[in-house]
Design goal:
heterodimer, A: about 625 residues, mainly alpha, two-stranded antiparallel ribbon, 2 strands, B: about 100 residues, Helix Hairpins, 3 helices, about 0% strand, EC 7.1.1.- (chain B)
Chain lengths: ~625, ~100
């Protein structure tokens, strides 16, 4: 029976896409009398089906042999485009995470979007997203993964631009689309350049190709080619995972509706990392590309966690933590620690989803997202507060939760070769711990402020998915243990384990001293104000974009437009104008004087005869 | 000095040129008609010259000249009638006043 579910697991994306189609029925333009709620219920049902199916498939495949399915998409001349699906434990587990988080986020959205009329559109977009991510989880082809990444880019644009009557939403959706698009386009260059080299886009075959001895020698002989190839392949995930310098979109995407933020922060940014992990054998062919991967990840991890500390918008503060964790994934991939990267993705998806859910409940009832206007919610919002605490514990290196094992595995892999990266990961862990503690202190600790004086707990539709996710976060270490993914107690690294714990303790401790201590005066001012502003304004990235890329493109666009309007159009217009003016000028030859006509006739005849005689004379000689 | 055909032709050409000059520069319409007569007479001299020097037996040129003189008379009559008709309408025979049919 379970083999049946394994065989048909490719149907999972179709459930959600079917849900997306059904949602259209409840668009306000089609069903205006009875409201849009059934759109949400249908999608919940479809996602539930998808989730149950993938869980059943997972039980069938976990210890089994990976299976492959292949559907021919297009055959032309020498190119065969097949859509290979890999049904392995990891892929189906990713499918379970995607559908499970979607199920919870959609139930959450039923509560969060209570006062909203756009359910048809929202749930259709959400289901579209879920379908895309499910295909990506199963796809075993770089080409089709690229297609799905683009599908998700469009989905991000639509979902961030959900409330399009707000101007910041429109600019945010624009930036999210263009930034990710730029990365995806460079990825496409890499994808296309890879085909003549490897002759395949199948991830498994690509890995075999990259690991063969002849290819290694070839790569060593042509370092530039493989460096450029690696860089192009990194660029796509770089934009998707909101890494420096393509990170601004995630900040601006926080203008979108919160239930989609759960997904974005949890899984969507992870799609880029998913592709990056699968591409790791090819990137590993070039030491430069590996170094760049690590560099990008390191800069993003440190920079984004510093920025997160300086934010006053609670959603944005979390979004920079997402960038920082994706930076850790980049470091893991760059240092060839695949297992740590998968673990990080899992721990991050669950914990970050929980954090955003908890924060969403706070935002819905206190209206403001401003950390300086929140406070004192601990006694009245215990479930939300505990969810936040568990989410934070699951994210940072806090034993025995998931994040701890992921970070421990990562630093374990860095121990021998990259000691300074090990320090960096510990610093990022401490900074994130500090940042999350700061948010906790400002939101739940302290005294209630004007905005938080009356803040009831939210409805069950939002609390229930939150608590379920809380339970899952708590169970992550047990699940990992049962799957024997955790190191045995006696194998624990004797020096590293205390280091990770101490970095967490220092972050949480300093955060608590500053933000949970009512004696410490808030808001905190750094002694050097410009530095604080530098972090608070995200290293002035919007200005950086505006004065580099955007400026250059705008100037070139204006110059080209001017050239087209004046030079190209002008040349063609000049032909017309010359004809018009010559007609206008030459008509004065028709002077109306009969004698002038006579003169013209005589002159013409004379010239003609003159030429004729000249010719005759020449002929005669 | 022997009178040669060339001299007749040159004289006729000179007369023709004078006629052309008068035809194009005269402002009086009657003088234009007179210039046309000069042209026709230059042609007649040509015809007579060729007839005498090249075709003394057939003298077809002289027959042509008789026809030309006849037609020229008729043409002058019609021309003067036209000038008169225009004069009746416009009270002038100045060629530069007859420029209504321009661009």
């Amino acid at each position: 029976m379970s083999s049946f579910f394994v065989q048909t697991v490719w149907i999972v994306p179709l459930y959600t896409l079917l849900g997306a189609l059904f949602s259209i029925l409840w668009l306000p333009a089609i069903t205006s009398r009875t409201g849009p709620r059934p759109a949400g219920y249908v999608n919940l049902l479809m996602t539930l089906l998808a989730f149950v199916h993938s869980v059943l498939a997972l039980t069938g495949i976990w210890n089994g042999v990976p299976q492959k399915l292949s559907i021919t998409w297009l055959e032309v001349a020498n190119l065969q485009l097949t859509l290979p699906l890999e049904i392995s434990g990891v892929n189906v587990a990713a499918l379970v995470v995607v559908t499970g988080l979607n199920l919870l986020a959609q139930l959450y959205a039923v509560g969060y979007l209570e006062m909203d009329w756009g359910w048809g559109r929202f749930f259709a977009f959400l289901a579209y997203f879920e379908g895309g991510m499910s295909v990506l989880a199963l796809s075993n082809s770089l080409f089709f993964s690229y297609i799905v990444l683009e599908v998700l880019t469009l989905g991000t644009y639509l979902l961030v631009g959900y409330w399009f009557n707000q101007s910041l939403v429109v600019t945010g959706a624009r930036d999210a689309f263009l930034t990710k698009r730029a990365g995806d386009l460079i990825l496409l260059m890499g994808v296309i350049a890879l085909l003549p080299l490897a002759g395949t886009w199948d991830f498994t075959e690509l890995a075999q190709w990259a690991n063969s001895e002849s290819v290694r020698q070839y790569a060593a002989a042509h370092p530039t080619t493989f460096t450029l190839l690696g860089l192009a392949l990194i660029a796509g995930p770089m934009g998707k995972c909101a890494q420096f310098p393509l990170h601004l979109w995630l900040d601006e995407a926080m203008e979108g509706p919160l239930p989609s933020t759960i997904l974005r922060n949890g899984v969507v940014v992870a799609t880029g990392a998913w592709v990056l992990i699968k591409l790791q054998p090819i990137i590993a062919l070039s030491p430069t590309a590996l170094a760049v991967t690590v560099g990008i990840g390191a800069v993003t991890a440190v920079g984004a966690s510093l920025i997160a500390i300086a934010q006053i918008d609670i959603k944005r503060s979390l979004s920079y933590s997402v960038s920082a964790y994706m930076g850790l994934v980049f470091i893991a991939v760059g240092t060839l620690n695949d297992d740590a990267a998968y673990l990080l993705l899992l721990a991050h998806a669950v914990a970050m989803g929980l954090l955003v859910m908890s924060i969403g409940g706070v935002i819905l009832n206190t209206i403001t997202q401003d950390l300086t206007k929140l406070g004192g919610l601990w006694s009245r919002r215990p479930i939300t507060a505990i969810s936040y605490l568990v989410g934070a514990a699951g994210l940072i290196g806090f034993p025995p939760f998931g994040g701890f094992w992921a970070i421990l595995k990562l630093v374990d892999g860095l121990w021998d070769k990259h000691p300074w990266l090990l320090g960096l990961v510990l610093v990022v862990n401490a900074l994130t711990a500090f940042s999350l503690t700061r948010e906790f202190g400002l939101v739940f600790g302290g005294k209630p402020q004007e905005m938080t004086e009356r803040s009831p707990e939210v409805a069950w539709t939002m609390v229930f998915p939150m608590v379920v996710l809380l339970a899952i976060t708590l169970h992550v270490p047990i699940i990992l243990h049962n799957l024997s993914l955790l190191p045995r107690w006696e194998n624990l690294h004797q020096q590293l384990t205390p280091l990770v714990v101490w970095s967490t303790i220092s972050g949480v401790g300093i955060g608590s001293i500053i933000y949970l201590n009512p004696l410490w005066k808030k808001p905190i001012q750094l002694p050097f104000k410009p530095l604080q502003n530098l972090f608070a304004y995200d290293f002035y990235t919007p200005q950086l974009y505006r004065y580099t890329i955007v400026l250059v493109v705008a100037v070139i666009a204006k110059v080209t437009d001017w050239l087209d309007r004046n030079v190209v159009d002008g040349l063609v217009n000049l032909v017309g104008l010359a004809t018009v003016f010559s007609g206008q000028g030459l008509k004065y030859n028709t002077s109306g004087q009969g004698q002038f006509y006579l003169l013209t006739i005589i002159l013409g005849l004379t010239v003609f005869l003159g030429l004729l005689t000249a010719g005759l004379i020449q002929l005669s000689f | 000095m022997q009178l040669q055909l060339q001299y007749f032709l040159l004289l006729a050409a000179a007369l023709f040129c004078i006629g052309i000059f008068g035809l194009i520069t005269s402002r009086n319409a009657v003088r234009v008609l007179m210039s046309i007569e000069l042209l026709l007479n230059a042609v007649n001299i040509n015809l007579m010259g060729f007839s005498n020097y090249l075709d003394p037996q057939g003298i077809k040129g002289q027959v042509f000249a008789v026809f030309v003189i006849t037609i020229a008379a008729a043409e002058a009559a019609v021309g003067l009638a036209i000038v008169l008709a225009i004069y009746r309408n416009r009270d002038t025979v100045d060629m530069e006043q007859f420029n209504l049919l321009k661009w």
